[in-house]
Design a protein that fits this description.
The chain is of the alpha+beta class and about 325 residues long. It is built from six helices and 17 strands. The longest helix is centred in the C-terminal third of the chain and has 29 residues. This is Fe2OG dioxygenase domain-containing protein.
């Protein structure tokens, strides 16, 4: 019989499933070790299993079967079958419709590889593909399939290159038969600990390891602080100071208009004038203030300050200060 599991309002599993042998628990991503009420794998599938055993596709008799029904537009989230739940060999047989499936390494999930599953085909996951690669089906009604014909063809004695052709394939109702063997001891010693739910470190161990790494980095930085400061000054001289010294005139020509908000901020205001302006707790510049512009460049903001206010500008680039004096700064230093 079909059952339809619902994860929750935000993540409903709309497809229908059947379980035989053991039931897979979608809430915990593990198998219930008690024999499922649906019974063992039906005898009708035994000839298919025997054929897979004969061909060497699998080496052991499966004891768990999950049947999924995929209607057009339905899919399944990308995942790795739980390591502690199933043994190495997993076979999924596609019936009824072709379908595109996406694979990606657990460690490189942005790089996806599309695999086209024709109907009446078997997808076999063993070793790395079973333990380290995620697989999933995107929810859509059509699949774009690239068909690669022969590399070249000849017409009238002239050789022509043939380019891959993209075909749009409509999805129909698809049934997948997934044969697996349940782990009874819930142990896994695979070579891929990243996606392994058995070998993954507990949170407190992860936190301890992260703390140790942080302490090591701090020690390294402290030991090399003088060297780091010297290197920083060297990089600043070579890539900052020298640039501005060389390009001061050109840079100044591209920095001629002050930002409006800063111009308004530097305007002399009377107490109480701030009621209708955006600087709510600011009454403007007083004429008895001393204003410092650190990194003044060509002095474009010094020129916004009234000459009645004392202002001093400094910059690491002497040539930019020359530009500032040439452009004039209302007698500011």
């Amino acid at each position: 019989h079909w059952e339809q599991r619902i994860y929750g309002k935000k993540n409903p599993m709309k497809r229908r499933v059947q379980h035989y042998g053991f039931r897979f628990n979608y809430e915990t991503n593990t198998t219930d070790l008690e024999p499922y009420k649906g019974g063992v794998i039906p005898e009708i599938f035994q000839p298919m299993i025997n054929r897979m055993l004969e061909l060497g596709i699998i080496s052991k008799q499966p004891d768990q079967l999950t049947i999924n029904e995929y209607m057009p537009g339905q899919g399944i989230l990308s995942h790795v079958d739980t390591h502690s739940a199933f043994e190495d060999e997993i076979v999924s047989v596609s019936l009824g419709s072709d379908c595109g499936m996406e694979f990606c390494l657990f460690s490189e999930q942005k790089k996806k590889i599309g695999v086209y599953l024709p109907r009446c085909s078997a997808l076999v996951l063993t070793g790395e593909s079973r333990y380290a690669w995620k697989h999933g089906i995107t929810k859509k009604n059509f699949d774009h399939v690239i068909c690669k014909p022969q590399d070249t063809t000849k017409e009238a004695g002239i050789e022509h290159k043939l380019f891959p052709e993209t075909i749009l394939c409509k999805r129909e109702r698809r049934i997948s038969l997934t044969f697996r063997r349940v782990r009874k001891q819930k142990e896994c010693n695979c070579a891929w600990p990243g996606p392994c739910d058995v070998q993954v470190q507990p949170k407190h161990k992860k936190a301890g390891a992260a703390k140790q790494i942080t302490e090591n980095l701090v020690n390294i930085l402290n030991e090399n602080s003088e060297r780091s400061e010297e290197l920083g000054r060297k990089l600043e001289r070579e890539h900052v100071v020298e640039f501005y010294e060389t390009a001061a005139a050109h840079f100044s020509r591209t920095r001629h208009s002050p930002w409006p908000n800063i111009s308004r901020f530097l305007t002399v205001r009377k107490p109480g004038d701030n009621e209708n302006n955006e600087f709510h707790d600011y009454d403007g510049i007083d004429e008895d203030m001393l204003i410092g512009d650190i990194g003044c460049g060509n002095g474009k903001y010094l020129r916004c300050i009234p000459s009645s206010v004392t202002a001093i500008g400094t910059d690491i680039s002497n040539n930019l200060l020359v530009q500032s004096r040439e452009l004039g700064t209302h007698n500011h230093d």
